[in-house]
Specification:
Blueprint (H helix, E strand, L loop, with lengths): L1 E9 L3 E2 L9 H12 L7 H11 L5 E4 L2 E3 L3 E6 L17 E6 L2 E3 L5 E7 L5 H12 L12 E9 H10 L3 E5 L6 E6 L3 H13 L2 E3 L12 H4 L2 E3 L7 E7 L3 E9 L9 H19 L4 H9 L6 H5 L3 E6 L10 E8 L7 H8 L1 E2 L10 E5 L17 E6 L3 E2 L21 H21 L6 E7 L24 E12 L3 E2 L10 E4 L7 E5 L11 H16 L8 H4 L17 E5 L9 E5 L1 H4 L9 H10 L3 E3 L5 E3 L1 E3 L3 H4 L2 E6 L15 H15 L6 E9 L5 E13 L16 E4 L2
Antiparallel strand pairs: 1-8, 1-9, 2-7, 3-8, 3-10, 4-7, 5-6, 10-14, 11-14, 12-13, 15-17, 15-19, 16-17, 18-19, 20-23, 20-25, 21-23, 22-23, 24-25, 26-28, 26-31, 27-28, 29-30, 32-34, 32-35, 33-34
Helix pairs in contact: 2-3, 7-8, 7-10
Length: 732
């Protein structure tokens, strides 16, 4: 196997071909074609070489450390001279704003593109022809991005050595989604570029006459020309992955393990030690070291993206783990201005002794990296549910109101104020996910001061000796719509060890709520047809290789008989029209044990329900059409908790009232018995409306008032598995 290596340098250390970075292989291919072209034609020998290059797999790319430059607003003519009657002297009247923000990088490090190819007959000669064409390259990106290039044909060992010596980031083409998506040549790319060049030359054509229909001509026709859009060039999109380099160190010495609540102090010691060691070795690069290791509060997002992140890892993974700190992870982003091996050297060795005189300890490269899996790092399967190990430092506007300890009774907070504070914190967490570049959509966010598991520490104890007020610290639990991978670190203290989250594996959802799109709405009167289609879809998704459907989704035993043991064994389905506009907005799927507190989940049923319910993406409902579904955050009106619940759909009793009995009184007794069977607290029941059907059948609207807040969903009555007896939480 041989490698074709093309090296490119840009004169000014700026690249304007945003938004892609590094410059895509398609941009390089276009630049090579532009350099080789002779007028409107490409020499035959060069054309053959380009077609050979199209047939190769996407190349590896090594790019120098880069960051986004400063924005510049430029005002240019908008090519609509007709607005000013074609007078070029009035061009100032049609200027439009254009935002320019280049990518900035060091010119001492080249861009490398490495293609692999087999040593077939003539392949080396063709690759050398590409190297000769590279000498003709004069720009890469926009017209202002002047560049030059050269090529080499190397064997595997030489190419790997060149990549290893490169001080920048290495981008590898991947098979899946995610990462950085770049355009890559494919068979026919050269032909599409030639065709586009030809069409660009005739995109403005003269009109010989007015519209044949006799209609008033448009403005283009008035001046006798029309514009024809040239075809786009043919390229394919490939996801390039460039994960950060993650170093793991063991913390050794007499002062280890380190206490969890002193994680910020440990992070600062590790950071300052590495920075001092690098400054002593590179006295002339103080600013670069400060930005890459220490950082500063006024730095923008580009500076933070290039900064190494130090994260001490508490010991987790077992119920009896003490959560003390024995390991430190260092993440080096691809665009860090320092070499990864230099950073590793700086962090290895004894830590500085601070003014408080701690016993010395040191960092040693770890041989066992198993702890990373507990934080969702590496190939370990992750989860939808994540919880903080160390609290997240949220912005000041999400801080709790401080209560003077000497005036606890006078300044006590009411429920409304606490709910408002938690709401602000939840909004801040959503923003923190965006700043951490977490693209997975959150379904639910819960905040509290207490740790979620034994062995943790309350949020406020982490504030001692830090720049964060204790009122800004919150423990956070996030449930995502899809599985997320780690490490997941949120908040303003994510570079100081705060906001570290761990996945909760094995935690499955017992209730899944879907939203129906506005363009595929279903009338409330058609909800029974919709729910039948949903149940059929769930049965199809849960069917095994032998065609068997578990009772959890079919409602039938293995022999086909209805599951009528007296216990609820199959899922509950319901539709909700929360806006009362006559259209179904929400679709609720709930497990038997979520709606009937006396039910027990069978082995594996938690995981099976979560797998099947979350894989439901579309429902084919016959005359209702094809309905796409999207998992949404559970609405409090459906899930609660709340003290008061009112009927959203009619309650139908489980037993007939009997001849001669008062239907209303019998129905109230039936509701009380149903709540008792479901292990719900005995509520105060108020009838809001009663309707009698044929054969003395009854349906009622009810209000249930509990002494303590009860979580939903609440589905009661004879048809509760089909959306009947759905109650809505009243929170006002």
């Amino acid at each position: 196997m041989l490698r074709l290596l093309l090296s490119v340098r840009l004169h000014d250390g700026r690249y304007h071909g945003r938004p892609d970075w590094p410059p895509s292989p398609a941009r390089l291919f276009q630049a090579l074609v532009a350099g080789a072209a002779q007028g409107d034609r490409v020499p035959h020998e060069d054309g053959y070489a380009f077609e050979w290059l199209e047939s190769l797999k996407p190349p590896l790319i090594a790019g120098p450390p880069a960051r986004a430059g400063q924005r510049l607003r430029n005002f240019v003519p908008n090519n609509d001279l007709d607005v000013v009657s074609g007078d070029p002297r009035r061009v100032g009247k049609i200027r439009a704003q254009k935002l320019v923000r280049p990518i900035v990088f060091g010119t001492e490090t080249p861009l490398l593109y490495v293609w692999a190819f087999d040593e077939a007959p003539g392949a080396r000669t063709t690759a050398q022809r590409i190297c000769a064409i590279a000498e003709l390259l004069y720009q890469l990106g926009r017209g202002v991005d002047m560049a030059w290039a050269w090529g080499e044909v190397l064997d595997d060992r030489e190419a790997e050595a060149r990549l290893a010596a490169h001080s920048g980031a290495l981008y590898r083409p991947g098979d899946g989604a995610g990462g950085t998506t770049l355009a890559v040549p494919l068979a026919g790319s050269l032909g599409s570029l030639i065709e586009r060049h030809k069409r660009m030359r005739v995109r403005f054509q003269r009109r010989s006459e007015l519209e044949p229909s006799g209609k008033e001509p448009d403005r283009a026709a008035a001046v006798g020309t029309i514009f024809v859009q040239p075809p786009r060039p043919r390229f394919r999109q490939v996801a390039y992955e460039c994960p950060p380099t993650r170093l793991l160190f063991d913390l050794t010495g007499e002062s280890t393990p380190w206490r969890l609540d002193r994680i910020v102090g440990l992070t600062e010691r590790v950071r300052d030690t590495a920075a001092q060691r690098l400054r002593g070795d590179r006295s002339g690069e103080a600013a670069k070291i400060r930005n890459a290791i220490v950082g500063h509060r006024d730095g923008d997002e580009a500076d933070k993206a290039a900064r190494a992140r130090i994260t001490p890892l508490p010991s987790i993974g077992h119920p009896h783990a003490d959560r003390a700190i024995r390991r430190v992870m260092v993440e080096i982003p691809p665009n860090c201005p320092l070499r990864a091996d230099d950073v590793e050297w700086a962090f290895s060795g004894p830590l500085l002794v601070s003014d408080r005189g701690e016993i010395p300890c040191e960092l040693v490269a770890a041989t066992d990296r198993g702890m990373l899996a507990h934080y969702g790092v590496g190939g370990a399967a992750s989860a939808c549910l994540w919880r903080t190990i160390t609290p997240a430092a949220l912005p000041q506007q999400a801080a709790r109101r401080r209560v003077d300890p000497s005036r606890m009774r006078e300044e006590a907070k009411g429920g409304a104020e606490r709910a408002e504070e938690e709401g602000k914190a939840v909004s801040a967490v959503v923003q923190a996910l965006r700043h951490a570049e977490v693209s997975t959509r959150p379904l639910t966010v819960h905040v509290q001061r207490e740790p979620f598991e034994a062995g943790g520490a309350r949020a406020e104890v982490f504030a001692a000796g830090t720049r964060f007020a204790k009122e800004r610290l919150w423990h956070v639990e996030i449930e995502f719509a899809e599985e997320a991978r780690g490490p997941l670190i949120l908040g303003d203290g994510r570079y100081l060890g705060l906001g570290l989250m761990a996945p909760v594996r094995g935690a499955s959802r017992d209730v899944v709520v879907f939203s129906l799109p506005a363009d595929a709405r279903v009338a409330v009167t058609d909800r029974e047809d919709l729910l039948r289609a949903v149940r059929r879809a769930l049965m199809a998704l849960s069917r095994d290789d032998q065609g068997n459907v578990p009772p959890l989704f079919s409602g039938h035993e293995a022999d086909g008989a209805p599951a009528s043991s007296g216990r609820h064994k199959h899922v509950f389905l319901a539709c909700a029209d929360l806006d009362r506009d006559g259209w179904v907005e929400k679709l609720v799927l709930a497990t038997p044990w979520a709606c009937d507190r006396s039910a027990q989940a069978g082995r594996g049923e938690h995981t099976e329900f979560d797998r099947v319910a979350t894989s439901l993406e579309v429902v084919r409902a016959g005359p209702l059409g094809v309905i796409p579904l999207r998992i949404s955050s559970p609405d409090q009106r459906l899930i609660g908790p709340a003290l008061t619940w009112e009927s959203h759909t009619d309650y139908r009793p489980t037993r007939h009232a009997g001849r001669g009995k008062d239907p209303g009184a019998a129905l109230l007794a039936d509701v009380a018995a149903e709540c008792e069977r479901r292990n719900l607290p005995r509520p105060e029941i108020q009838m809001l409306g009663l309707s009698l059907g044929p054969r003395e059948g009854a349906a009622a609207r009810l209000r249930l008032k509990f002494a303590l807040a009860v979580a939903g969903p609440i589905l009661l009555g004879r048809d509760s598995h089909r959306g009947g007896g759905l109650f809505e939480a009243i929170t006002r």
